[in-house]
Design a protein that fits this description.
By secondary structure, the protein is of the alpha/beta class. The protein is built from ten helices and eight strands. It has helices at about 1-60, 120-130, 140-155, 175-180, 190-195, 215-230, 285-300, 335-345, 370-375, 380-390, and strands at about 105-110, 130-135, 155-160, 200-205, 235-240, 260-265, 300-305, 350-360. Helix 2 links the parallel strand 1 and strand 2. It is globular, with a radius of gyration of 30 Å.
Length: about 400
Amino acid sequence: MVNGSFKFFLFLLFFLALTNTLFVSCDYEDSTALTTDTETEIETPTTNTDDELEPETNTETEPSIDEETTSAGGEGEGEGEGEGEGEGEGEGEGEGEGEGEGEGIPFGFWGLNGYHSSSGLADVQTRFGTTVFQVASEAPGYTVGTLLPLVRSAGITVTLRMTSNPDYSTDFNIDTWKTNLDNWAASGVQEFIDDGTLIGHMLLDDIYNFAGNYPTAEELDEMARYSKEALPGLFTFVRERASNAPIPISGTYEYVDAFVNQFTTVNIDNGEVTDYDGDGDIDVTDYAQENAAAAENLGVGVIMGLNICDGGNGESGQTGWRAATHRTFYAMSANEILTYGTALLETPNVLMFLMWEYDGQETWYSDGATIGSDYFDQNDLQEALYELSQIASLYN
């Protein structure tokens, strides 16, 4: 009897153990199936989001680069077109007034065409100390989807002309300009203004090249007001030296933040050697003082720079970008770049230093063969430009 009870007890233990094993196994399989389903549901939205971004990013390729828009009688320092300031850790600088958060005057070039890539931007940063560049864009999709993220990741900054080339064969039309700027309204560009990647908006270039009426001071100020309303926090400037800018009826500008003063030893209008104070000498200090005083009177800031392609005195022996008109134009020598640039940087309250131009694609008109970047890639010129960038970095 005891023996039979013991056998029954062993059988009961075996049955209970087998039942528990089957239950655990089934529970584990159900848990695995739930985890797999959950991961599938999470992945699906991520994939769809990426697909939604592709149409805007991929439907616009990098715009073609316009050549120099200046007529023979214009100010004519030119500009590279394309897409895409400051030093920093990848977010750039700039607080909407042209000055970075850290030390140093933003230093760079117009154009950089041929260098709008990660390796290209790293190259010009290393060789020239570039912290900002200026280009013109008519393609918000490419700019926001491709160029500005590239600029941000490179730790450099950019200023843009954000409207198409105006029709210089007629009167300036501010309504057309505003319509063109409206194309940026829903582009997503504000994100890059807010983080300091995009630090400036060049409202207009070559303001005296129109065959008809030029933009008035009041129109330039209205353009700046319209820009600030549409693109809060973005610094506004006009490419014309302060001493030659139209004067508002009130005497000062309310919304334009700065004018661009690019020194040249040659008066572009008539091809004669420039004498800025009437004493017969070409003196960069006279130029700096004249334009700084004019800017102060107009209530605007000072952007300085050099016309390195056409503004030389001839000592380089290298004919410049422009075809010969009244005289031969020369690119600046290494000595000129360092001498003139240092004097301009000594001007109080310089907000930015921009040089026209460094371009890896453009052929100079003067001889039909020289690529501007090839000339400036020579060792002595690279060294002069880099040294100038280091001087700029010492200023607040």
